[in-house]
Amino acid sequence: MSTLLTKNLADSEQSPPPLEEMPITKHLIILRKHLFKIVGLILVLFFCLLPFANQSYQMMSEPLRSQLPMTSSMIATDVTATFMAPFKLNFFVALMIAMPYIIYQLWSFVKPALYEKEKTLALPMLIGSIGLFYAGIAFAYLVALPSILHFFISVSPETVAPMTDINSYLAFCLKLFLVFGLTFEIPIVTLVLIMIGLVTTQQLVEKRRFIIIGCFFIAMFVTPPDALSMIMLAIPMWMLFELGLFLGKLLENRRKSAV
């Protein structure tokens, strides 16, 4: 009996305390471990991709270079720009490749605090958010960016030769990628708001016209100052909202049938 009691006491000392009983310092230590893993992977990817930094920049600049006149080319207005622009892009590429691992580490940190039902719902939504973010960047690079560049180049005066600075082009592209990547998270955000009971699908349907106007209003401020850019962002925002609304209706119907 005493042996069994000693064994149970030893096991209890080895097992971690419940999450709600852990001090804040213990949470910070665990979070630091996850952050070290994230930073470590990003650095490894960054240095592995560094020899291909110039090729990555050439790939990103292809939509612009393919539409420039034969007499035009990209330029560098700063001495360090030829090095810093591919360097910055290389970090962004490493960050995007590491994104699933980053989400996984954050999920591992949050997971112990969730109930079993929340875990089953949260994991598919995390995977979906990653996929939608990549889809937004792909849409920006393959569809939005060539169309926007074609518009700006086509309306330039004949006496002006368009020559874009490589740093300015990089900043423009990264902003566009992030805007579309975050925009494509609208279905997940809509679904989360419905899941936590903050809004219902009926309320969203009633306010649909205001939401559509809001999509165009937001697109007007976060895109370049032309109608084409605004439309190419606002319409996907609207369609993605409708997708989130459709998924929310399916969720509400499942809740009703489960009652």
UniProtKB/TrEMBL annotation:
One GO MF term attached to the UniProt entry: proton motive force dependent protein transmembrane transporter activity
Residue intervals passing through the bilayer: 35-53, 91-110, 122-149, 169-196, 208-224
Sequence similarity: Belongs to the TatC family.
Subunit field text: The Tat system comprises two distinct complexes: a TatABC complex, containing multiple copies of TatA, TatB and TatC subunits, and a separate TatA complex, containing only TatA subunits. Substrates initially bind to the TatABC complex, which probably triggers association of the separate TatA complex to form the active translocon.
InterPro entries: TatC (IPR002033)
An example Gene Ontology CC term for this record: TAT protein transport complex
Subcellular location: Cell membrane; Membrane
Name used for this protein in its record: Sec-independent protein translocase protein TatC
Key word Repeat present: no
